[in-house]
Amino acid sequence: MCLAIPGKILTIEEQNNVRIGRVQFGGITRETCLDFCPEAEVGDYVIVHVGFAISRVDREEAERSYALLESMGVLEAELQSDLEDL
Amino acid sequence: MKYLDEYRDGRIARALMAEIARRATRPWVLMEICGGQTHTLMRFGIDEMLPPGVEMVHGPGCPVCVTPLEIIDKAIDIASRPGVTLVSYGDMLRVPGSHQDLFQVKANGGDVRIVYSPTEALKFARANPGRQVVFFAVGFETTAPANAMAVWQAKREGLKNFSMLASHVLVPPAIRALLSSPRNRVQGFIGPGHVCTVMGYREYEELIREFRVPIVVGGFEPVDLLEAILMLVVQLEEGRAEVENQYVRSVTYEGNLPAQKVLAEVFEVCDRKWRGLGGIAESGLALRAEYADFDADRIFGTQGVTAEEPAECISAEVLQGWRKPTDCPAFATRCTPENPLGAPMVSSEGACAAYYQYRRHLATAPGGR
Amino acid sequence: MTRGTKQETNIEAGLVCPVPIVSRDSVLLGHGSGGRMSAELLHDIFLPAFQNSVLARLDDQAIVEVNGCRLAFTTDSFVVKPMFFPGGDIGSLAVNGTINDLAMGGAVPLFLSLAFILEEGLSMDVLRQVVESIRVAAGLAGVSIVTGDTKVVEKGSGDGIFVNTSGIGMVPGSLCLSADQARPGDRVLLSGTIGDHGITILSQREGLQFESAIQSDTAALHTLVADMLCAGDGIRCLRDPTRGGLSSSLNEIAGRSQVGIHLDETSIPIREDVQGACEMLGLDPLYVANEGKLVAIVDPHSAEPVLEAMRQNPLGRGAQIIGTVTDTHPGLVTMRTRLGTSRIVDLLSGDQLPRIC
Question: In chain A, is it the N or the C terminus that has fewer CB atoms within a 10 Å radius of its CB?
Answer without folding.
Answer: C
